[in-house]
Amino acid sequence: MKPGFTIILFGSLLYSVGSVAGQAAGNNDRSSHVAPTTATWVSVPVPSVISANGASYSVEPDGYLYATVHSGALPNIVNSVLRTLATNPGTWTDITGTGLSNGSEFLGAVGMMPNGTILVSGAQPSGGVADVFAWNGSTTKPVWTRVKGWDRVSSSRIYGFTNDSAGYTYFSPAWSGDIWRNKAPNSLNFTRVVANLYEVTHGGATGHPTTGGIYALSVFNLDDGKGDMIWACGEGELDNISLNFRAKSNTAYLTTAQGYTGNCTAIDKSPTTILALRQASASLDSGYDILTGIDIATRAVTVHPGSYPRSSTGFPAYINMNQVGLLHWVSGTNWIVSNQASNQAYLLLSTDDGNTWTDMTARGGIDSSCTGPNLSVGAVATSQFVYARCQRGAVLWRYGPL
């Protein structure tokens, strides 16, 4: 099933991505800690262009919180990009400048290359064209340019970016299952390195094992002697394959044969655990199982079943699998997930690598502008703070330090 064109950024988780967004080998160090204190909710001021139109957010390794905004309607969309310090938000800098597509494209995922270059994707809601833009880094004369090599042909959007330890950046135009990488470390010239990943691994969509889109893409080095490895999933299994994409190097997880038949939409890792979201069928436990943990040391797989109604420390059932990348590692064994299940929006925190989850908006201090129906999917986080996206991003609250 193809995810809809929901405009959400994946800071990390994004991800990331991400996660999928701007992390060298997926190993962005978010384990640092500040002095213990009482965590609180604080309202974050946003400029008028955000409060009037809403925004999607991403926290990048450069320490900034990025917001992408679109105003107007098709075919007259106007896109904007702003940023503020993630550790001390308040003063926002407009870095829209020149070069971004307007009119028929919405901005999507933000990511950061190993050298600090910020990327942003854009796509037409109806499909056909997707872009990748690179920022020149100037806050006084910001300019965005399209990357080279990428042919812009995409039936969907680019959901995120990921980096390896050698300085290469990867992305997938989703529904195709292709993966693109720059021709040299930190280069803005990209080339396709694999056409349809599931044609290599034969782990694609149910009934079509050699096809399927890629919705979650990360590079992790698990210190197992294999070095950097791609972890990718979407309309099919979670594949762990070498950067040369040779089939014999692949290890498959969350396969159709194991009972997983729906979309895989998020993956991230802590120092000890990989968590992934993929819908399972009714033949596996309750049928609501969508959160799966992989122990990095042993590769043992643990299913964390969802329930309806959600228990006070449980994971929700019926997560909307048409929204991508909303599961993020924060630091240590801390994770967040923001999503919608059974017409209810959730912002949940796990402090034990996904075993239990608690409602962050129930911790007090946050007002009704960011609870209940006003809570929107798309929360992002730093190593110590979680940003709640509310009223489609027109309102922003921050919780922490964790």
Secondary-structure map:
Layout: E1 40-44, H1 48-53, E2 56-59, E3 64-71, E4 78-85, E5 93-94, E6 106-112, E7 118-123, E8 128-135, E9 144-146, E10 153-154, E11 162-163, E12 169-171, E13 179-182, E14 190-194, H2 197-201, E15 214-221, E16 228-234, E17 236-242, E18 251-253, E19 260-269, E20 273-280, E21 291-295, E22 301-304, E23 306-307, E24 315-316, E25 327-331, E26 334-341, E27 344-350, E28 358-359, E29 380-381, E30 386-390, E31 395-400
Parallel strand pairs: 23-24
Antiparallel strand pairs: 1-31, 2-3, 3-4, 4-5, 6-7, 7-8, 8-9, 8-10, 11-12, 12-13, 13-14, 15-16, 16-17, 17-18, 19-20, 20-21, 21-22, 25-26, 26-27, 27-28, 29-30, 30-31
Structure characterization notes:
This protein has 2 helices and 31 strands. The chain has helices at 48-53, 197-201; strands at residues 40-44, 56-59, 64-71, 78-85, 93-94, 106-112, 118-123, 128-135, 144-146, 153-154, 162-163, 169-171, 179-182, 190-194, 214-221, 228-234, 236-242, 251-253, 260-269, 273-280, 291-295, 301-304, 306-307, 315-316, 327-331, 334-341, 344-350, 358-359, 380-381, 386-390, 395-400. A hairpin with a 6-residue loop joins strand 3 and strand 4. The two termini are 36 Å apart. Mean pLDDT is 89; it is low at 5-36.
